[in-house]
Amino acid sequence: MTPTARALAFCLGACLSLASAAPAGVEQRLQAALVYKLPRFVEWPARRLPPGRGPFRICLLGQSGTLAEALKKLRGRRAKGHPIEVLVGPALDEMAGACHLVFVAHSQRARLPLILARLDGAPVLTVSALKGFAGRGGMVGIVRQGKRLGFEIDLGRARAAGLTLAAPLLQISKVIDP
Q1: What gap in Å lies between CA 138 and CA 113, rounded to an integer?
Q2: Shortest CA distance to 57 belongs to which of 34, 41, 80?
Q3: DSSP, res 163
Q4: Do residues 121 and 160 lie in contact, with contact meaning Cβ atoms separated by under 8 Å?
Q5: Which domain range does residue 35 map to?
Q6: In this predicted model, what pLDDT tens digit does every residue of 111-167 receive, in sequence order?
Q7: Which CATH number characterizes residue 20's domain?
Q8: What is the pTM assigned to this prediction?
Q9: Which of 36, 82, 141, 150 lies at a CB distance of 3.0 to 4.6 Å from 134, suitable for a disulfide?
């Protein structure tokens, strides 16, 4: 494991191991922290995220009070050199053009096939804590691994959307091939 991967694993492990006995609100705040960290390990096509121009948009689909509050606190911070904007509940037709990262909340479980179909092939990183998310067409699933949270990644889906995931992220994740 490279030093970068070890550092990422340590940072995420220290934070995420707290999730084992944490109430739902704490776990959702940890998920928001992951959403904030993930863009560091993802490259978007230059046409989708031009260097130094425009905001980096994180979109939340679904009802999730604590997660929405935690994500809103990211407003004004930076991701990939861009100021973060958080959109809660954008219209499905607008997501592919407006969002760089979409987090799908549990309340959207029934609509997941429709959401992923609308984003299919778009350079939008899809993330969720829904069970089996990466195996059902999503890109990054946040999963419980014993007393910790970890990642399942559908690398093929991310590549098909024009996204490049960094090796340190892949080294600490379970890469699946659905």
Answers
A1: 10
A2: 80
A3: -
A4: yes
A5: 3-176
A6: 999 999 999 999 999 999 999 999 999 999 999 888 788 999 999 999 999 999 999
A7: 3.40.50.2300
A8: 0.86
A9: 141
